[in-house]
Amino acid sequence: MKKRLFWITMMISLCATIAACLITSYVYYGFYAQNAKAQLRTIVELSKTPENWDNEGSINMSVYNILKSVDYSMRFTIIDLEGIVVYDNWAAARTMENHSDRPEVLEAIQYGRGEDTRYSGTVSSDMYYYAVKLNDSRVLRVSREIKSINLVFAGTMPLLAVFFVLLFMVVYFAVHLFTAKVMRPINEMTGNIDMLEGSSGKEVKIYDEFRPLSMKIKEQKVKINEYIDELRHERDTIGIITENMKEGFILINRDKNILSINSSGKRMIRNKSFSLNGNRNILELTRNKEIIENVDMALGENKHLVYDMDTGSNFYRFYFSPVKEQMNSSVAGLMVLIEDVTFQKKAEIMRSEFSANVSHELKTPLTTMIGFAEMIKEGFITDGESIRKYTGMIHKEGLRLISLIDDIIRLSKIEEGIDAEDGSMADLKEIGNEVVNLLKHKAEDSGVELSIRAEKVYLCANRNYLSELVYNLVDNGIKYNKKGGTVNVDIFKTENLINIRVSDTGMGIPEEHRDRVFERFYRVDKSRSKETGGTGLGLSIVKHIAELYDATVELRSRENMGTQITVLFRQNENM
Question: Helix axis angle, 428-445 relative to 463-479, nearest 10°?
Fold first, then answer.
């Protein structure tokens, strides 16, 4: 605006200056021409006495005296009433053409005097002619050269040029100062809007014409600030929500450029170092073929898609939801929600494996029982000794089946947390001694020495669950031991932890099986487990009871040297 105002003012000043020069030249020329004509008329009127022009001698004398009194040349011509030139001081009279058609001569003959201004080819200049009638036979015409306005203007051009340059410099600086002064309040007003509100402590002088504008600016500023604050609040709120979501969140536009992504999204898509600076395409975040194909399909076909990805350690479910524009149904972008379904997937796998294992474990003893029963029924076994043998095996398999069903029911109750908190304080020393006494004869039959060292420790938990936990640990230590081996039970406190430790000197657990021994129906040595009558649920029950009370289970084992399992409970605050 400042430049525009400056140049507009400069152009107006320049045009005014040029116009002033032209007008001055025309005025000067007018005064010059009027003065020249007045001088000439005065001279003619003073010297028009007929005696001064009646013969050649008086004519020459009169011309001489007049030219002597002025500093410019003049032309004197005497013409008779028929237009014949009698005398001319610039040219020979006999060679000149008839002047009866000259306007000034015609007027002088008719009215006594006449005048005219016209261009003369003889002298190549404008000439002013003034004629008077001397007597009844002659007309005196006097003329002088009057410079044309072009010549006058050309003569004054150097002076006008100097004047124009000086005036331009004055105008330039004056306009510069003027525009700076005019624009100062505007610049201050636009440079710091806070000044308009009086919050800066500095008074701003505003033109009265701009006060409505300043008031409008203040109103708009308040509205804009409120709108910005509202948008900032919404942005921060949405940012906090998405950043604290456990689900991954990615927002993509129709060009597949990422608009927003939270930390969970980066982690789940396995690119934690990704930084959203500028326009970054989805290909810069991941090169996973399935993800890119689903993004293209969801955007291209405008439909919701679901994709499950297995990373090896986790299962993620991707929901691709197109975002439509409000004005029409075209796709404006895509929202990708990533859910961690590892727990659900593993639960499905466990349920599937559990169903298969239960079916297998139940089918095996039932098949044996049915087979022996059919043999007796069909009469293949008739002697009493064989019947007692096979009925004993049926009885053993039935007991195994009942034991398996009991373990499954107990495990289900433990998983559901039934009777987990009964409010009673369980004496772990007492529980340990009871378990040892129950399994003492089994240990002796297996040639295993069983011992216990227990402190007086109490824990707020279901007594039956704790007894089941210790029983399964000690029973496993006996089953998978060797003759002459030992099983030691230690119950003690360390700082804020209660320790239940069962150590044996048995065959140990190979390293590749240690991560799976707590799974349902998992057996390291299936043949030995069948011999000992195990159901494969003992350590799984131990793990679930420990998880029920937020305890941890530690396993240490060396092949052919033994196994040590420690369950660590947090000590109750009131103990």
Answer: 30
Neighbours of 141 (CB within 10 A): 24
Closest-CA residue to 145 (of 42, 37, 26): 37
Helix (H) or strand (E) holding 336: strand 331-340
Task: Please say whether the beta carbons of 487 and 443 come within 8 A.
Answer: yes
Dist CA 10 CA 191 (whole Å): 26
Maximum Cα–Cα distance across the chain: 198
- For the chain, how many helices (H) and strands (E)? 14, 17
Alpha helices (runs of H) in 47-143, residue ranges in sequence order = 56-69, 103-111
| Torsional sign, CA 227, 228, 230, 234 | positive
Q: What is the DSSP letter of 551?
A: -
**Integer-rounded Cα radius of gyration of the chain:** 63
Copy the structure tokens of residue 365.
């003893």
Nearest-angstrom CA–CA distance, 269 and 263: 10
Per the structure block, which two tokens stand in for 402? Answer: 């009942």
Question: Could you read off the pLDDT of 435-488 as tens digits, one per residue?
Answer: 999 889 989 988 999 999 999 999 888 888 888 889 889 988 998 888 889 999
* Three-state SS letters, 448-481: CEEEEEECCCEEECCHHHHHHHHHHHHHHHHHCC
* Contact (Cβ atoms closer than 8 angstroms) between residue 104 and residue 141: yes
Over residues 117-135, the pLDDT tens digits come to 887 766 667 788 999 998 8
Structure tokens belonging to residue 70 = 């002025």
What whole-number distance in Å separates Cα of residue 354 and Cα of residue 348? Answer: 10
Rounded Cα distance, 255 and 280, in Å: 10
pLDDT at 127: 85
Taking the CA atoms of residue 215, residue 219, residue 222 and residue 228 in that order, the dihedral angle to the nearest 10 degrees is -130
Q: Does the pTM exceed 0.70?
A: no
Exposure string for 39-56, b = 16+ CB within 10 A, e = fewer: ebbebbeebbeeebbeee
Tell me if 476 sits within 8 A of 506, measured CB to CB: no
* Residue stretches of the chain with pLDDT short of 70: 1-2, 5-6, 121-124, 147-157, 185-210, 327, 350, 353-364, 400, 403-404, 407, 410-411, 413-423, 520-536, 572-575
CA–chain centroid gap for 340, Å, is 28
In the chain, what is the straight-line distance between the N-terminal and C-terminal CA atoms, in Å? 84
C-alpha pair distances (Å), 87 with each of 48, 67, 81, 142: 15, 16, 13, 11
- What's the residue count for the chain? 575
The b/e string for 342-366 (b: 16+ C-beta within 10 A; e otherwise) is eeebeeeeeeeebeebeeebeeebe
Tokens of 53: 């022009």
DSSP structural state of residue 30: H
Rounded Cα distance, 32 and 38, in Å:
10
Q: 295: closest CA among 280, 282, 276?
A: 282
Provide long-range contacts, Cβ within 8 A and 24+ apart, for 4-7: 5/179, 5/182, 5/183, 6/175, 6/176, 6/179
Using an 8 Å Cβ cutoff, are 80 and 89 in contact? no
